[in-house]
């Protein structure tokens, strides 16, 4: 019981689980191996991650892991709102260097499936935003990489001026696409 929509880059998918509401609140099956497999998405998630970002403008990314620990990610918001971005870093892809940007929120209940071969990041659009995401490989520090969020070649509109963004020191130092090693040929 979920809706799967293709995006401008077909490998990236928008997932909307069914939500059942009544006077008590709601119930939603946000992940079901069977339902996803029936929709053609056969994924083996091994870890759940959760982040809380207090200020508006917290930017996390653009992150990815290289093989053999490359990750598919299923991203959703349980409180607040984000602009979620996936950048195609598959060197042989016709959409190499292009990105998809979508708004995910607790209200719209959408999830973004970011496949292996994409750098992923998001910026918070509301205070105290919580993001949960499932991944198909465990965290591997030696395979942890990033891409510059402000690379002009990517042309990402983060919706906020650069001086209003809060980033980690690590996320300010990622290479541009033209400087990055090609992990996904």
Automatic annotation (TrEMBL):
Pathway the protein contributes to: Carbohydrate biosynthesis; dTDP-L-rhamnose biosynthesis
Biological process terms in GO annotation: dTDP-rhamnose biosynthetic process; polysaccharide biosynthetic process
GO molecular function terms noted in the UniProt entry: dTDP-4-dehydrorhamnose 3,5-epimerase activity
Positions marked as site (Participates in a stacking interaction with the thymidine ring of dTDP-4-oxo-6-deoxyglucose): 139
Classification via SUPFAM superfamilies: RmlC-like cupins
Cited CDD domains: cupin_RmlC
Subunit structure as annotated in this protein's UniProt entry: Homodimer.
Role: Catalyzes the epimerization of the C3' and C5'positions of dTDP-6-deoxy-D-xylo-4-hexulose, forming dTDP-6-deoxy-L-lyxo-4-hexulose.
Protein name, entry field: dTDP-4-dehydrorhamnose 3,5-epimerase
Originating organism: Bosea spartocytisi
């Amino acid at each position: 019981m979920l809706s799967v929509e293709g995006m401008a880059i077909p490998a990236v998918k928008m997932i909307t689980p069914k939500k059942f509401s009544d006077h008590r609140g709601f119930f939603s099956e946000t992940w079901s191996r069977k339902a996803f497999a029936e929709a053609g998405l056969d994924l083996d998630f091994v870890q759940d991650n959760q982040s809380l970002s207090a200020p508006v403008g917290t930017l996390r990314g653009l992150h990815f892991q290289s093989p053999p620990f490359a990750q598919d990610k299923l991203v959703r918001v349980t409180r607040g709102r984000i602009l979620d971005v996936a950048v195609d870093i598959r060197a042989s892809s016709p959409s190499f260097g292009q990105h998809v940007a979508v708004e995910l929120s607790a209200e719209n209940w959408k999830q973004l499936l970011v496949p292996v071969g994409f750098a992923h990041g998001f910026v918070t659009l509301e205070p105290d935003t919580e993001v949960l995401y499932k991944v198909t490989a465990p965290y591997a520090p030696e395979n942890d990489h990033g891409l510059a969020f402000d690379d002009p070649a990517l042309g990402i509109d983060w919706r906020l001026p650069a001086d209003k963004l809060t980033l980690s020191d690590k996320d300010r130092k990622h290479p541009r696409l033209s400087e990055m090693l090609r992990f996904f040929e």
